[in-house]
């Protein structure tokens, strides 16, 4: 028995030391392609890159090789791109747990930005749905750049009544709001939905999509944003500096939570017995937050009647087409807070990181030539 205990003890110690050594090795050998990024001959473009994790000043505007589309790809000249909290999570490598996939010490992928709009410049020979000159929007890693290439299957024609700045603000926030309300939240016409964080990037879409789905929408925001949220169609607006939605007598079919500032049990109190809580975002944390709330929701599940869920949005062409139709019909209009030129991307990301953006923050992309003339 004693011998077995000793074997187990030494095995556990060896495992811990092995893991520690592996982690040290993986951390110090974690690297990226930054040394080889600069364009060497051929056509070039400006793009934002980050070689190290850190504050917004790690974002640098560099000259890279202009991408060339293969037979299946579309080359797009970017006109606008928008900033999401997603971008600063990658820029900082926080919560740290995400570095397990993205590079422990340095980001593996040094390009940043996702949502964009622009004009098709060239297409590969097997591309059937787009031609040069088409105005499009979508999402692609590395959107903070003058050009992106991508497969046609996730690219959408821009509605004419929407500007490039607005179309470039759609993908992540619009899809998240739509999928959170309709798919995870199963929102039905006539139901009551509460949107916590109604004045932010996702929230401003969610208020409008909630109304388009026929729901009774309550938005939660601070005093300065009450009029904005009301103007988007909210039936009722709660100013969180004056009232606490978890303490009122109102009960909701669905809470779509972009803020995560209330406990799960407090939110549960504001739900109908068959209501649903859908967590989209939560408080910032360096190690695992907001994923700890996801774990708590999972543990709480067997003990409460209401559904407590977390969702991560997915790229889906049909959903992007639905967003396009809603925009075309004037039922959804992306809300733009501020715009910044590509060379001031770090300021745009820093602003979004404050958590005070009202709607979307957009980066506009001018011609390389006109930037040079400034
Ligand atoms: N799960 C997913 O797939 C997914 C997708 C997209 C985003 N997200 C996450 O969802 C969250 C929201 O994203 P976002 O793009 O909407 O962020 P955002 O645009 O940065 O949100 C900023 C807004 O949040 C509001 N806000 C801050 N504290 C609040 C509070 N206590 N109550 C109500 N509103 C408050 C701010 O209004 P005031 O200044 O007036 O307070 C501001 O308008 C982020 O955590 C993001 O990472 C998740």
Characterization of this structure:
By secondary structure, the protein is α/β, with parallel strands linked by helices. The protein folds into two domains: 36-170 and 334-364, Quinone Oxidoreductase, Chain A, domain 1 (Alpha-Beta Complex), CATH 3.90.180.10; 172-310, NAD(P)-binding Rossmann-like Domain (Rossmann fold, 3-Layer(aba) Sandwich). Helices cover 32% and strands 24% of the residues. Strands 3, 4, 5, 6, 7, 14 and 15 form a seven-stranded mixed beta sheet that branches. Strands 10-9-8-11-12-13 form a six-stranded parallel beta sheet. A hairpin with an 8-residue loop joins β1 (44-50) and β2 (59-65). It is globular and about 65 Å long. Bound molecules: NADP nicotinamide-adenine-dinucleotide phosphate. The site of NADP nicotinamide-adenine-dinucleotide phosphate has 31 residues, from α5, α6 and β9. Residues 84-85, 172-173, 176, 196-197, 199-203, 220-222, 224-225, 240, 258-259, 261, 280-281, 311-313, 352, 355-358 line the site of NADP nicotinamide-adenine-dinucleotide phosphate (NAP).
CATH topology of the largest domain: Quinone Oxidoreductase, Chain A, domain 1
Q: Bound compounds, please?
A: NADP nicotinamide-adenine-dinucleotide phosphate
Please give the count of helices: 12
CATH superfamily of the largest domain: Medium-chain alcohol dehydrogenases, catalytic domain
What is the CATH architecture assignment of the largest domain? Answer: Alpha-Beta Complex
What's the CATH class label of the largest domain? Alpha Beta
End-to-end separation: 79 Å
User: In which range does the helix fraction lie?
Assistant: 25-40%
Please tally the β strands and state the result: 15
- Number of discrete domains: 2
Question: Which sheet architecture does the biggest sheet show?
Answer: 7 strands, mixed
Encode the helix/strand succession as letters: HEEEHHEEEEHHEHEHEEHEHEHEHEH
Report the uncertain regions.
none
- Estimated radius of gyration: 23 Å
How does the helix and strand content classify structurally?
alpha/beta
What's the overall average pLDDT, rounded?
Answer: 93
- Shape designation: globular
Q: Tell me the β content.
A: 15-25%
């Amino acid at each position: 028995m004693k011998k077995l205990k000793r074997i187990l003890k030494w095995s556990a110690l060896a495992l811990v030391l092995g893991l520690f050594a592996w982690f040290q090795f993986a951390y110090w050998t974690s690297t990226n392609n930054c040394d080889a990024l600069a364009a060497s001959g051929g056509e070039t473009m400006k793009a934002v890159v980050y070689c190290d994790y850190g504050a917004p000043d790690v974002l640098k505007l560099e000259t890279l090789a202009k991408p060339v589309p293969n037979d299946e790809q579309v080359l797009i000249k970017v006109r606008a791109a928008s900033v999401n909290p997603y971008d600063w999570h990658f820029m900082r490598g926080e919560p740290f747990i995400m570095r397990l996939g993205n590079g422990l010490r340095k980001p593996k992928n040094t390009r940043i930005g996702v949502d964009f709009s622009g004009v098709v410049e060239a297409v590969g020979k097997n591309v059937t749905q787009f031609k040069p000159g088409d105005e499009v929007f979508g999402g692609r890693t590395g959107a903070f750049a003058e050009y992106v290439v991508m497969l046609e299957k996730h690219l959408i024609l821009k509605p004419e009544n929407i500007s490039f700045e607005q179309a470039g603000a759609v993908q992540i926030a619009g899809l998240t709001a739509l999928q959170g309300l309709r798919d995870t939240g199963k929102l039905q016409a006539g139901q009551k939905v509460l949107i916590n964080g109604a004045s932010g990037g996702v929230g401003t879409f969610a208020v409008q999509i909630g109304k388009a789905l026929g729901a009774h929408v309550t938005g939660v925001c601070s005093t300065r944003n009450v009029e904005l949220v009301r103007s988007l169609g909210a039936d009722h607006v709660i100013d969180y500096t004056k009232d606490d939605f978890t303490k009122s007598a109102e009960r909701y079919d669905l809470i779509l939570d972009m803020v995560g500032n209330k406990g799960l049990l407090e939110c549960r109190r504001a739900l109908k017995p068959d209501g649903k809580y859908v967590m989209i975002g939560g408080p910032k944390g360096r190690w695992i937050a907001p994923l700890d709330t996801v774990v708590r929701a999972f543990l709480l599940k067997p003990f409460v009647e209401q559904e407590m869920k977390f969702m991560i949005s997915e790229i889906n062409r049909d959903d992007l087409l639905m967003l396009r139709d809603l925009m075309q019909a004037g039922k959804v209009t992306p809300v733009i807070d501020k715009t910044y030129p590509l060379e001031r991307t770090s300021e745009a990301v820093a602003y979004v990181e404050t958590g005070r953006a009202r709607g979307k923050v957009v980066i506009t992309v001018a011609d390389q030539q006109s930037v040079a003339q400034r």
